[in-house]
Design brief:
With about 350 residues, this protein is an alpha+beta fold. The chain contains 7 helices and 19 strands. It is about 20% helix and about 30% strand. The strands form 3 sheets. Strands 3, 4, 5, 6, 7, 8, 9, 10, 11, 12, 14, 17 and 19 form a 13-stranded mixed beta sheet that branches. Strands 16-15-13-18 form a 4-stranded antiparallel beta sheet, with no helix packed on it. A two-stranded antiparallel ribbon has the order 1-2. Bound molecules: zinc ion (ZN).
């Protein structure tokens, strides 16, 4: 497995990427780690159209060359499980024993974290929809640009670690992105299995233009670098199971890529979800959920109701097809066009490429 992982890593390197892990030092933002070292510091995002920020980052540069895994936490400000998990991962990584490197972005979106913001940064934009970003944009776009240049361009593999946002009651799952690049897609799949979450949403819908990649993980994939997006936890909680799944999954990826020996939590036979739909609020109002996460539903099963502020029903929200509730919004605000629930259809068998 180790040899195979390294071959995949080599295949994944784009023509413009030098084999960075082979270098004597690895620099990310203000942080430089020499071979066999661990260092922490900041990615500076200067002020521009609006206020700047700085992103906490660690670099663990292994004693021997190998893949460079980027772990990105806290893209959304009210999603805490990955922010809590990465310091534990950092403590467990021993550069003296590593063949390869790990870049840990501890908190991708400090303005949203410290502002306790759901979905949107202070500029009103969703950081996970503005990649690859731009240097002259608002703060979300400048953060995306900085992470693209300093982290994604310097990595060979990436995990973007999410959970249900502050209003989302979510069951754990990963996204397997199918991009059309067979080698990368297979490596994406192997990373998803290695991370260990036992439900996997098959996602074939991400943009194909690297200049409009929108998502963190898609930015890596469209640059030829295998990646996945994880979801564990939600509702602003930091429960041990949800944080532990992020930590265990990250260490299992380190093992899978042959960077360092660590416990594997690989799942060989996950539940594949071949069709999924986010159900959005048809109108602003007060959300009364009926269904719960992990609930099995039939086509037409009532998921909840949107009422007006006086208590009059505006709309019932029902499952569009049979499957499972992957998440349901668990707090009352329903804003027009925003998610209320996510339903997935379970594939019978193995997915085709
Ligand atoms: Zn998120």
């Amino acid at each position: 497995m180790r040899t195979e992982a390294i071959v995949l890593a080599a295949l994944s390197l784009g023509s413009t990427s030098p084999f960075l892990a082979a270098q004597d030092s690895l620099a990310v933002g203000t942080v430089t780690a020499r071979r066999g070292e661990k260092a922490s510091g900041w990615l500076e995002v200067p002020a521009g159209a609006d206020e700047g920020t700085r992103i906490p980052v660690s670099v663990v540069h292994g004693a021997k060359p190998g893949p460079v895994l980027a772990l990105v936490a806290g893209t959304h400000g009210y999603e805490y499980t990955s922010v809590m998990a990465l310091p534990r991962v950092l403590a467990r990584l021993d550069p003296a024993r590593m063949a390869g490197s790990v870049i840990l972005v501890h908190m991708a979106n400090p303005p949203s974290f410290y502002g306790r913001r759901i979905y949107y940064s202070p500029d009103g934009k969703n950081l996970n929809r503005v990649y690859p970003g731009r240097p002259d944009g608002t703060v979300s776009e400048r953060i995306a640009h900085t992470i693209t240049r300093e982290v994604i361009d310097k990595a060979t593999h990436l995990a973007d670690m999410h959970c249900g946002d502050g209003n989302e009651s979510l069951r754990p799952y990963s996204y397997w992105q199918v991009s059309g690049n067979a080698a990368v897609d297979e490596a994406n799949k192997q990373m998803v299995l290695a991370f260990g979450l036992d439900h996997v949403v098959i996602d074939r819908e991400r943009p194909k233009d690297p200049a409009k990649s929108a998502y963190t993980s898609n930015t890596a994939v469209l640059r030829g670098k295998p990646a996945l997006t994880t979801e564990s936890g939600g509702m602003g909680l930091t429960d041990a199971d949800s944080v532990g799944a992020q930590e265990a999954g990250a260490m299992s990826l380190v093992q899978h890529l042959g960077i360092m020996d660590a416990p594997s939590v690989r799942v060989d036979k996950p539940v594949w979800i071949d069709r999924s739909e986010v159900l959005r609020a048809p109108a602003a109002g007060v959300w009364h959920p009926v269904a719960a996460k992990m609930q099995t539903v039939a086509a037409g099963t009532l998921l909840g109701r949107v009422r007006d502020p006086f208590g009059r029903e505006l709309q019932e929200v029902r499952a569009p097809f049979a499957g499972e509730v992957l998440y349901v919004v668990g707090t009352p605000p329903a804003s027009e066009g925003e998610p209320l629930a996510f339903v997935g259809h379970l594939l019978d068998g193995e997915p085709q490429p």
